[in-house]
Write a structure and sequence with these properties.
Blueprint (H helix, E strand, L loop, with lengths): L9 H4 L16 H14 L8 E4 L7 E5 L4 H19 L2 H19 L9 E4 L5 H7 L5 E4 L2 E4 L4 H17 L3 H19 L17 H14 L16 H6 L7 H16 L3 H14 L5 H11 L3 H14 L5 E6 L6 E2 L2 E2 L23 E9 L3 H12 L10 E9 L6 E2 L4 E7 L6 E2 L9 E2 L4 E6 L2 E2 L2 E4 L3 E5 L7 E9 L2 E2 L3 E5 L5 E2 L8 E2 L2 E3 L30 E7 L19 E2 L2 E2 L18 E4 L2 E10 L7 E6 L7 E10 L2 E2 L4 E5 L1
Parallel strand pairs: 11-21, 23-33
Antiparallel strand pairs: 1-2, 3-5, 4-5, 6-9, 7-8, 10-12, 12-18, 13-17, 14-15, 15-16, 15-19, 17-18, 19-20, 19-21, 22-25, 24-25, 25-30, 26-27, 28-29, 28-31, 29-30, 31-32, 31-33
Helix pairs in contact: 2-14, 3-4, 3-6, 3-14, 4-7, 6-7, 6-8, 6-10, 7-8, 8-10, 10-11, 10-12, 12-13, 13-14
């Protein structure tokens, strides 16, 4: 039984098939990305660049230190790219502020060294966390430049990440200040490298001469964002594919592939030739099957749309949301098929061991993680998410709209309804297709491959019966306070306009077979002698599939009712649930020990038939359908006879109208 709104459009009323609600991953939404960005600014940039907080325990919110200082430049560059893509999509002032903050952080890494080399990170010397960071990074050499200490021995990795971000900021953020800052940082850094053995730290062992594709990317980006830059590369360099050919010999040190993709993102776009394309193809052929959202999006930027790859990318980004944010230990040994020491196939994203940036970690890794006390930044969500939005892999959310007068009772159209009752709202852009919850507990989210929809009342997510593009039916939570309530429909992270409606103590209603609250009541014969395989509705003539006959004095009927208030036992008032299960739209047997009288309403309604009071045998919560009531009564002697005799229910001074009828003979 699907109860549709009494004023629903004919197309909605025509829905006969129940569409099951699949169990799908949480859809990647802009709202999730904004939460991650806000959290980064609050918790992950204590000194202006990306660090990860250490908590007192896996369940504590008390920060006792910071870690990952050695890769701060790299991930600040990735964060800069993420917020630049966000700005390219949204033109958001908040995104612009984040871009400028990241650029300022990178500038500080150049300023603190005094010679334009790039520091791995900086830390306030008087910070309570400085000692822990110095201890962790001691092998990289610690310098002092009051009020800062800074970490030296910068690797090629850090420079590649920074240039990835600088190039993205210059191309995606049309702001003179941003472009100037990006150009200045790139010019200073390439100048130092060119004068120090093409090395980020004046050490020949880390020279970019060993990675010709990275060196060419740095030179191309530096010229692109500062055309007056005259630095050119060394006269003799190895072929551009040398480094990549070495990388694809094994999957070890998997982070190398992340750096390769960052490199080719700019290199192929700025110098699109056969050599660079060929080197990138070698990389892509080796890693395309690794289920890596970031790598896929670089490929989208360089090679255009590909339906299967882009679909996979959406799923991978969505699955990231199912991962814990802290570094809990993971050991999948024996849980996934293994080929030697690694998984035979890429491990599903929600199960992969934690790391600073998921997409730089070996997807076949079986174990890893820490104590659950370190929180990762989430750059590995916002970077692929905003890239996916920029390249059209994930579409922008469509804001749903609730009609300002569109909240009513499903049964009778009342605009004032009590807690626990079924109500519906009308509007636009709620979803792309009709979905019906066909099992209990009712769904708190309705999901398809393209939509993730939820509804809140006073900020509480509510259980839904069904949703269409223009209507949603839900159970008003039992705990909703009387007075004015506010409803919001959220689709793919985009909220609707808030709409207020009234919540009262009672709103008596009777469900009718035409679904619009008038005409023949859902009044069913309770007497077993009058029940056959089809619903027995008290009526004089067959109507569609509703068969039966007119009632007579002494017959016991029950009516599907609405708005009768809470049960006597408040523990029986459970949102979205009923004692007897509904599975695939088929009522199941009630559990052992079920007693209908335990679900009696606090207030017993008055029932009249053609104005004649009827004996009310019971008034209970429906055992199968949350938010509905069953009222059992005996047809009184002296009831008027006819095919349209009014049946009315009254509780708390609220009485149903006379245009709902049953047949009496």
């Amino acid at each position: 039984m699907v109860f549709m709104p009494r004023r629903a459009a004919p197309g909605v009323m025509a829905v006969l098939a129940v569409v099951s609600v699949p169990c799908l991953p949480v859809l990647a939404t802009e709202a999730d990305a904004l939460v991650v960005s806000a959290n980064i600014r609050v918790l992950h940039m204590p000194f202006g660049t990306i660090l990860n907080p250490i908590y007192a325990s896996p369940t504590s919110d008390q920060i006792i230190g910071y870690t990952r200082c050695g890769d701060s430049a790299l991930w600040t560059g990735a964060y800069l790219a993420a917020e630049s893509f966000r700005y390219g999509v949204t033109q958001s002032p908040d995104a612009l502020d984040n871009v400028k903050t990241a650029l300022a952080g990178l500038k500080s890494l150049l300023d603190v060294t005094g010679d334009n080399r790039l520091a791995r990170c900086i830390v306030a010397a008087d910070s309570p966390w400085a000692a822990g960071i110095q201890s962790e990074e001691a092998s990289n050499t610690i310098h002092s430049n009051p009020p800062w200490i800074w970490v030296d021995n910068t690797s090629r990795d850090q420079v590649v990440g920074v240039f990835f971000g600088l190039g993205a900021a210059y191309d995606l953020v049309n702001d003179s200040g941003v472009r100037s800052a990006a150009s200045d940082a790139a010019t200073r850094l390439i100048g130092f490298i060119a004068q120090h053995q093409w090395s980020p730290n004046d050490d020949l062992s880390s020279t970019f001469l060993l990675r010709p594709e990275q060196l060419q990317m740095l030179l191309q980006v530096a010229r692109h964002i500062n055309p007056s830059n005259t630095i050119s590369g060394p006269f003799l360099v190895p072929p551009v594919n040398v480094g990549v050919l070495f990388d694809v010999q094994s999957i070890s040190s998997y982070f190398k592939f992340n750096l390769d993709y960052m490199t080719f993102f700019h290199l192929v776009q700025l110098q699109d030739n056969d050599d660079n394309r060929g080197a990138y193809a070698t990389l892509r052929n080796y890693t395309a099957s690794h289920q890596n959202a970031f790598f896929n999006l670089i490929d989208r930027a360089l090679n255009g749309t590909a339906a299967a790859r882009d679909q996979e990318t959406r799923g991978l980004i969505e699955q990231w949301l199912q991962r814990p944010r802290r570094d809990f230990s993971v050991d999948l040994t024996g849980q996934v098929p293994a080929c030697g020491s690694e998984a035979c196939q890429p491990v599903p994203v929600p199960l992969r061991p934690p790391g600073d940036f998921l997409w730089q970690d070996d997807p076949f890794q079986l174990s890893g993680g820490g104590s659950g006390r370190v929180e990762t930044s989430g750059v590995d969500y916002i970077l692929p998410y905003w890239m996916a939005r920029y390249y059209g892999v994930i579409s922008a959310g469509v804001a749903p709209t609730i009609d300002t007068n569109g909240v009513h009772s499903v049964a009778n159209g009342s605009t004032t309804n009590p807690p626990g009752s079924l109500i519906y709202a009308t509007g636009t852009n709620f979803t792309s297709q009709t979905l019906v919850a066909n099992s209990t507990p009712l769904a708190l989210q309705m999901q398809t491959s393209t939509d993730d929809v939820s509804v809140t009342v006073n900020g509480v997510t509510v259980p839904m019966y069904y949703i269409t593009p223009t209507a949603v039916s839900l159970q008003l939570p039992w705990g909703t306070a009387t007075g004015t309530a506010t409803m919001v429909v959220t689709r793919n992270g985009v909220p609707s306009n808030p709409v207020t409606f009234q919540v009262g103590q009672f709103s008596s209603g009777i469900y009718t077979t035409n679904g619009v609250g008038t005409g023949m009541a859902w009044a069913i014969f309770a007497s077993t002698s009058k029940v056959n395989s089809k619903a027995q509705v008290a009526q004089s003539n067959n109507v569609s599939t509703y068969v039966g006959g007119a009632a007579t004095a002494g017959d016991i009927l029950y009516i599907y009712a609405a708005g009768l208030g809470p049960p006597k036992d408040s523990t029986k008032a459970v949102d979205g649930q009923a004692p007897c299960p509904l599975t695939n739209n088929v009522p199941g047997p009630c559990p052992a020990g079920y007693n209908a009288s335990n679900y009696a309403t606090l207030n017993t309604p008055v029932v009249t038939i053609g104005g004649v009071p009827a004996k009310v045998n019971a008034s209970i919560l429906d055992p199968t359908y949350p938010g509905l009531y069953l009222v059992f009564f005996t047809v009184p002697a002296g009831s008027p006879k006819g095919s349209t005799v009014p049946v009315q229910i009254e509780v708390g001074g609220v009485i149903t109208p006379t245009n709902v009828t049953i047949a009496i003979q």
